[in-house]
Amino acid sequence: MAERVAVLLAAGVSSRMNTHMPKVLHEVTGRPMLAYVLDACRSVGVDKIYVVVGFGADQVRERFAEESADIVWVQQPQQKGTAHAVMCCKEHLADFAGQTLVLCGDGPLIRAKTLKTLIEKHEAEHSAVTLATAVLDDPTGYGRIIRDAYGNIQGIVEDSDCTAAQRAVNEVNPSYYLFNNQVLLRALEQVKPDNVKQEYYLTDALSVIIATGHKVVAITAVRPEEAVGVNSRAQLSVASKIMQQRIQQELMEHGVTIVDPDNTWIDARAKIGQDTVIEPFVYIHGAVKIGRDCRIGPFAFLRHGTVIGDDVVLGVFTELKNTTLADGVRARHHSYLGDAVIGRNVNIGAGSITANFDGENVNRTCVGDDCYIGSGAVLVAPLVLQPGANVGAGKVVSQKNVDRLNEEPGQ
Ligand code: UD1
Ligand code: CA
């Protein structure tokens, strides 16, 4: 395998997002945008990932602190453009003779498969640069790929610098590039900020490389939905929707029924078992795990830390947070279970809740196997109910009175 590193651009101010937060930390289906780009790089094999940060650098570093063994953070003190951002990695790249993959942190829809195609093409063609392009119905905002009469790429022109004829070109640059590293570094030295925005454009490095006579190959390998770059909140919502479709598609291929995909939201980190049915208006947020043969919803809200066994039925307005349900639990109507461990075959009656927060601390509730919790019960945490306990309708159960309840089944 060729030696390969990646440079991810994530320093931009993101003025179009109108945000105090670094753009790459904005979330798409529960994960920061940058996480998806990191995944894609890692899946094709890179020795190091240089992430160029600037605006909100500390926040970005902190967010990825636990998964940064292969990351080298590079500071871009002033955001002078994408070529300048890559140039900030110069001292790290100076002696490197392999391939450098350059990607943008605001392109979360990137697919590993496309990167594999890009790498294969680059190696088969022995090109100095290979880039993957997309053809869009509406290319507005993207750099346009300009080709000659033979189809060879001549350069990329940014939207703001296009002539009317260039603006009509609908092949665009999603910013997926693979460079011969030394060719890249030499070209970057020659990029000038001769454009409307007076920035150093990475796209201009390509024109330099083409002019020097190196082989540059542009393959149309990016599907339109994958090309979406997130520059605005509107594009963030478009990217989220596309990612949601991918998540659901994959779950359905693994045997999960999603009754109404348009009215269901499932976090990218969720895992769901075979033959589970997700009814409409279910919202799953966080790394929620659901077993097999469950029926979830309609209108269920499953939050972070939820782990559900097999053959569980959750009905309307059931909210779970940081809660484990063993196999066979039923919570069909209007319940809130927070910070709880619920044993096998427990029935949670309509409107029953755990009172898990006492104003200062969050406390746990443990309900043993085969307990029966009647309608409208309030389980005041911290609380342990022994297996088989029976809580009558409308009861407020605290640890103080729990032993008595256990002794008098049928209350
Ligand atoms: C860029 C491309 C454009 C392409 C589009 C794809 C250039 C000049 N243009 O435009 O051809 O169609 O992406 O989505 O490259 N960044 C830095 N430092 C900077 C400037 C930007 O790190 O000084 C980062 C940003 O955080 C972002 C990425 O580089 O993640 C791209 O910058 P952005 O301003 O979003 O470029 P676009 O206008 O989208
Ligand atoms: Ca962008």
Pick out the low-confidence regions.
none
Strand content: 25-35%
End-to-end C-alpha gap: 70 Å
3D shape: elongated
CATH superfamily of the largest domain: Spore Coat Polysaccharide Biosynthesis Protein SpsA, Chain A
Identify the quaternary structure here: single chain
Determine the number of helices (DSSP H or I, runs of at least 4 residues). Answer: 10
Structural class: alpha/beta
- Write down the overall mean pLDDT: 96
Are any ligands bound, and if so which?
A: uridine-diphosphate-N-acetylglucosamine, calcium ion
How many DSSP-defined strands? 32
Annotated CATH architecture of the largest domain: Alpha-Beta Complex
The portion of residues assigned to helices is 10-25%
Domain module tally:
2
Q: What is the C-alpha radius of gyration, as a whole number of Å?
A: 27 Å
Q: Which class of the largest domain in CATH terms?
A: Alpha Beta
How many strands, which pairing sense, and closed or not: the largest β-sheet? 11 strands, parallel
Return the CATH topology of the largest domain: Spore Coat Polysaccharide Biosynthesis Protein SpsA, Chain A
Please tell me about this protein's structure.
The protein contains ten helices and 32 strands. It has 411 residues and is α/β, with parallel strands linked by helices. It folds into two domains: 4-227, Spore Coat Polysaccharide Biosynthesis Protein SpsA, Chain A, CATH 3.90.550; 250-407, Hexapeptide repeat proteins (UDP N-Acetylglucosamine Acyltransferase, domain 1, 3 Solenoid), CATH 2.160.10. The strands form five sheets. Strands 12, 13, 15, 16, 18, 19, 21, 23, 25, 28 and 31 form an eleven-stranded parallel β-sheet that branches. Strands 1, 4, 5, 6, 7, 8, 9, 10 and 11 form a nine-stranded mixed β-sheet that branches. Helix 7 (181-188) crosses helix 8. The longest helix is centred in the middle third of the chain and has 21 residues, at 233-253. The protein is elongated and about 90 Å long. The termini are far apart. The structure holds uridine-diphosphate-N-acetylglucosamine and calcium ion. Residues 9-12, 23, 52, 76, 79-82, 84-85, 104-107, 142-143, 156, 158, 172-175, 201-203, 229, 231 line the site of uridine-diphosphate-N-acetylglucosamine (UD1).
